[in-house]
Amino acid sequence: MQGVLGCIVVNKDGVILKTTCEPETAELHSHLIPQLAGLARNMNDLEFLRIRSMKQEIMVAPRKQ
Q1: Looking at the 3D structure of the chain, how many domains does it have?
Q2: Which residues make beta-bridge pairs with 9?
Q3: Does 51 fall in a domain?
Q4: CB 3.0–4.6 Å: which of 14, 29, 43, 62 could bond 34 by disulfide?
Q5: Beta 57-60 vs 16-19: how paired, if at all?
Q6: Is the pLDDT of residue 64 over 80?
Q7: CA atoms within a 13 Å half-sphere pointing along the CA-CB vector of 50
Q8: pLDDT above 70: percentage of residues in the chain
Q9: CA-CA distance, 24 to 21, in Å (whole number)?
Q10: Which pTM was predicted?
């Protein structure tokens, strides 16, 4: 997709299942995203999480399982 830097698939423990990113980038995000998703789940059931900055955007779409 045009403009997409990469895709990372992790399990609930942050273990990388599949990635198209550089290993260092995948490792960094694989540890941070599950923690952030866990914080969002404490408030409500998380369906989709979008984090946007001036340069990048991170989208998280957790599965129920």
Answers
A1: 1
A2: 18
A3: yes
A4: 14
A5: unpaired
A6: no
A7: 1
A8: 89
A9: 8
A10: 0.70
Please report, for the domain that includes residue 31, its CATH number. Answer: 3.30.450.30
16 is a domain residue: yes
Dist CA 28 CA 46 (whole Å): 21
Element containing residue 60 per DSSP (H, E): strand 57-60
Phi, psi of 25 (to 5 degrees): -65, -45
Ranges of beta strands (E only) in 2-47 are 8-10, 16-19
- Domain assignment present for 12: yes
User: Residue 35 burial by CB count (10 A; 0-12/13-18/19+): exposed, middle or buried?
Assistant: exposed
Residue 55 tokens read as 């340069």
- pLDDT tens by residue, 13-39: 889 999 999 999 899 888 888 888 777
What is the predicted pLDDT for the residue at 34?
81
Residue 42: pLDDT band with limits 50, 70, 90: low
